[in-house]
Write a structure and sequence with these properties.
Strand 7 and strand 8 form a beta hairpin. The chain is globular and about 35 Å long. The protein has one helix and nine strands; from the N terminus they run ββββαβββββ. The termini are far apart. The chain is mainly β. Strands 1-5-9-6-7-8 form a six-stranded antiparallel sheet, with helices on one face. A three-stranded antiparallel sheet has the order 2-3-4, with no helix packed on it. Helix content is 7%, strand content 44%. It has a single domain, classed as Beta Barrel (OB fold (Dihydrolipoamide Acetyltransferase, E2P)).
Length: 115
């Protein structure tokens, strides 16, 4: 199993979504606070709404500037807290396409996609 994962979220119909055909996801939406957290994380990335790279892992890795700390389970998904923005957001059960169990910490790096 991979220890680093990469997705390219983008805006569709005004919502952050991502595709990952390798795990059977298409236009999978980010909701319940994670969408607002993404807005903050990518505020300095030009044209992020057209797509940005998100690299994530349950283990620290070079360049991972953000951390999501597990808070609780709800409705089959899990709530995570980001200390930098003092925000919570819910990650839906699609999380389990990448992890066998909800990680206590998710390390994240966001960056521009070269066009």
């Amino acid at each position: 199993m991979n220890s680093l994962f990469v997705i390219v979220p983008y805006k569709y119909e005004g919502m952050w979504v991502f595709d990952d055909p390798g795990v059977g996801l298409s236009r999978e939406p980010f909701v319940a606070g994670i969408d607002t957290l993404i807005d903050r994380l990518v505020a300095e990335i030009p044209e992020a709404d057209l797509g940005f790279r998100a690299i994530f892992s349950a283990a620290p890795f070079p360049g991972a500037a953000e951390r999501l700390e597990w808070q609780r389970e709800e409705s089959g998904g899990n709530w995570y807290y980001n200390d930098r923005f003092k925000m919570e957001g819910w990650l839906c059960p699609a999380l389990f396409k990448y992890f066998a169990a909800a990680p206590k910490t998710i390390f994240v790096k966001v960056e521009s996609v070269k066009r």
